[in-house]
Amino acid sequence: MRTYKTHIYGKSVLGTKLRDADFTRATGLEAQQFAGSNVTNSHFPDKLDLLDSLKQIEELSRNSRKLMVALLLGCVYASLTLATTEDAMIVAKSASLPLPIIQTKVPITGFVEIAPLLLLGMYFYFIC
């Protein structure tokens, strides 16, 4: 698809298939107009900052991936800790709980009350 000297200012091409399109001579282009569009092998003018937007998206994805892995590992660790705990220990609220792997003893009440809040905080940070 060739655009020749098409003026595209203010137009949205959200979600369209623009594979192999040539926008090098089009005017009024902004990177936001191509959100959700397939622009594989398309050509754009040099002054359009698509690469900066793509770099920013890549960095956000990398950070989100790290946070998601940390959240999942935290859930697995908390589940493992609670799976190795007897119900009587939780009800009594007086015993210390050895954490799996690192074998550090922590008060059961602290773990049962704080761990879910930390995981919930990480979850809300992740989705916001």
How does this structure look, described?
By secondary structure, the protein is mainly alpha-helical. Helix content is about 45%, strand content about 5%. The chain has helices at about 50-85, 85-90, 110-125, and strands at about 95-100, 105. Helix 1 runs antiparallel to helix 3. About 5% of the residues are buried.
How does the SSE layout of this entry go?
Layout: H1 50-83, H2 87-92, E1 96-98, E2 105-107, H3 108-127
Residue-averaged pLDDT, rounded?
79
Number of strands: 2
List the secondary-structure elements in sequence, H or E.
HHEEH
Q: Radius of gyration from the CA trace?
A: 26 Å
| Strand order across the largest sheet | 1-2
Spatial shape? rod-shaped
Largest sheet: 2 strands, antiparallel
Percent range of helical residues: 40-55%
Structural class: mainly alpha
Low-confidence stretches: none
Strand portion = under 5%
Termini Cα gap? 38 Å
The number of helices is 3
Which key terms come to mind for this protein?
128 residues; 2 strands; mainly alpha; 3 helices; two-stranded antiparallel sheet; single chain
Quick description:
The protein is mainly alpha-helical. It has helices at 50-83, 87-92, 108-127, and strands at 96-98, 105-107.
